[in-house]
Write a structure and sequence with these properties.
Length: 231
């Protein structure tokens, strides 16, 4: 029990002293996750809105695919991205495997279906309320998409925050495509797994505390968004 107490004290000292190793891991984690969330929002929000607003051949198949892809196992996504980016894969010539870029790609593939599927549902609900009005006004496709996304902005922000929470907690896919290389692709989740297996509890606990604070902050931000929407 004394060892655990000492590990916690050391962990908080690492955080308070802004340990360079810990800061580097946290900074890389935030860079990868925030970039992935930004790309996912740019792809998933208009995609989900388009699937909800427009009728086209294969619409039901796309909807089914998005709903199914929400539950994709991270390790499967990591394996697929690994095969695509490996030397023998179609994008192997780019040399992206075991780089932060590969981790961003993997997280983006994981988050886009979540953002798109939830956006589709929200926009479909809005169409039940505003669909007739938009048709009477004769709005074009781009104007329709912009109007629906703007009307649902608070709900969509909550979705984006949820996507960030999903990305920041991911370990399987990023470990496969990133390789967990020290000072290159080692993020909070992979570091916690590695340091725990090595018995370096202070660093693992320090990163765990930061990850918990980050998760709590995301949840609080989502709650504030919901309250703002109701007000």
């Amino acid at each position: 029990m004394h060892e655990f107490g000492l590990a916690f004290v050391t962990a908080f000292h690492l955080i308070a002293d802004f340990d360079p190793g810990l800061v580097g891991i946290v900074a890389l984690s935030l860079r990868v996750s925030l970039t992935a969330v930004l790309l996912s929002a740019l792809i998933g929000l208009p995609l989900g809105a388009a699937v909800a607003a427009f009728h086209f051949p294969g619409r039901r198949a796309v909807t089914l695919f998005l709903n199914t892809a929400m539950g994709l196992p991270p390790v499967v996504v990591g394996l697929i991205v690994y095969l695509i980016l490996s030397r023998s894969g179609p994008l192997g010539v780019l040399g992206l495997l075991f780089t932060p870029t590969a981790m961003i790609v993997a997280q983006t593939v994981l988050i886009v279906p979540i953002v798109a599927a939830l956006t589709r549902q929200i926009v479909e609900d809005l169409l039940m309320e505003y669909g007739d009005l938009l048709r009477v006004m004769g709005t074009g496709p781009l104007t329709t998409l912009f109007t629906l996304l703007s009307e649902a902005r608070w709900s969509l922000l909550t979705i984006v925050l949820a996507g960030f929470g999903r990305a920041s907690a991911e370990v399987g896919a990023v470990m496969i495509v990133g390789g967990n290389i020290d000072r290159v692709t080692r993020v909070m989740t992979t570091s916690i797994a590695l340091e725990t297996s090595k018995g370096d509890l202070p660093l693992a606990l320090g990163l765990g505390v930061i990850l918990m604070i980050l998760s709590l902050s995301v949840n609080l931000a989502a709650a504030m968004v919901r309250e703002t929407r109701r007000a």
